[in-house]
User: Fold this.
Amino acid sequence: MERTRLPQWIKARFPGGDGYHRLKGIMRDLQLNTVCEDAHCPNIGECWNRGTATFMILGDICTRGCRYCAVAKGKPVTLDLQEPGRVAEAVEKMQLRHAVITSVDRDDLADGGAEIFAQTILQIRKRTPQCYVEVLIPDFKGDGNALRTVMDARPDILNHNTETVPRLYPTIRLGGKYSITLELLERAKKWYPGSITKTGIMLGLGEEDFEIEETIRDLVSVGVDILTLGQYLQPTKKHALVKKFYHPDEFRAWKVKGEALGIGHVESGPLVRSSYHAEEQAELLAAR
Assistant:
């Protein structure tokens, strides 16, 4: 089936430049993965030239097969216990002020990889104490102990993506449950008062406007501080089709709507992704 042609307002910078090649060299030298590469992020050129990237820990094979994601699916065979130290080394070498750590889903592990997340946070704190650490975690299948393991390491921002509206979960977010996503975000806020929580939604998968608003209201009800809204782009012909391309004016309108409904900061635009302008988002929220 043919993929839909992109509208003229969706343009990404072609990867290149000194910053891009320097960061790529650090990643290869330390044998690290980034979601920027594995998920085919359209912002890789811009972000890497600014010296920012989202580290993807726990390998590059995901145990789930979500219809929107380009990361390889399958059965992971390894767990690298030395990975947290290498991520911390990369953060130090890159002199980052804001590091974002995410992972594949590891449903094969008893704790879903929570301990590796915690160790990564602690190792970064040890080597670069001034660096803000944002984690974009999987749902750990609703395991509260796994969430506590991560939160006890005190990340500055706890991010878990909602991805889409609840009606589309069974066909788009395979293996995920909307109720577990909301519960995770609510627990993080309730169990760790003062923590900053964040989530993201992709638009263009077939959701209706009223469903977007209802989902945002749900996120407000569980205390989410930061929301990212971006255009879903079909990574390959095997993935879900784009049902609609939202105009930049529509994204601006949803930013206004989301903040009016009670979200502290909404980052909204066609090329916005979970960690896009992550440092600026945190600074804007702190200034309010």
